[in-house]
UniProtKB/TrEMBL annotation:
Protein name per Swiss-Prot or TrEMBL: DUF721 domain-containing protein
UniProt-listed Pfam families: DciA
Length: 174
């Protein structure tokens, strides 16, 4: 069972040479080992899988991989036999199995990065659709404005005044 009582910060930062290994040193070494294992696993996988999977953990002789969604998990499952035999023969002889879990945050992070790299300040105006308000729609809005309360009437009249202009949000914001 794990000792989950509060600990003094002094024990976390103790010098590893005098006391053995401090907890932070142990965590840091484990994180470094997982990063190296992640690089190795990615080098063994096909290139299309690289952005959508990563090593999450290695415990009790089980390697835990994360995939962005179910389709990437399925593609990753096809690679398990080769991955398992290669890892056993080269770096993890005690590896018993590989578990794959879905982590949707992998997809969100990658999607946001793709959207941010595709957008640039100059492309924002080009990506917006150029919408037109027809004169017939403007007439209908004006008729509706006549029978509306004052606050709504002003907004409908302003909207109707845009007839024939491009009504893209990049051009006018009120």
């Amino acid at each position: 069972m794990r000792d989950s009582r509060p600990q003094s910060l002094d024990t976390l930062f103790e010098d590893g040479a005098t006391v053995g290994k401090s907890p932070l040193q142990t965590i840091q070494q484990y994180a470094i080992a997982l990063l190296k294992l992640n690089r190795t696993v990615l080098s063994l996988l096909p290139a299309p899988l690289h952005p959508w999977c990563r090593v999450a953990n290695y415990r009790k002789h089980i390697l835990v991989l994360e995939a962005g969604n179910a389709s990437w998990m399925t593609r990753l499952r096809y690679e398990i036999p080769v991955l398992l035999s290669t890892l056993r023969s080269e770096i993890l002889p005690s590896l018993s199995s590989i578990d794959i879990r879905i982590n949707p945050s992998l997809m969100v992070k990658r999607d946001n990065n793709a959207q941010n790299s595709a957008k640039s300040p100059n492309n924002d105006k080009q990506n917006l659709p150029n919408r037109q308000l027809t004169h017939e729609s403007a007439k209908a809005l004006m008729m509706l404005a006549e029978r509306s309360p004052e606050k709504l009437k002003r907004k409908l009249e302003r909207l109707a005044a845009l007839a024939g202009e491009g009504t893209s949000t990049a051009k006018k914001k009120r």
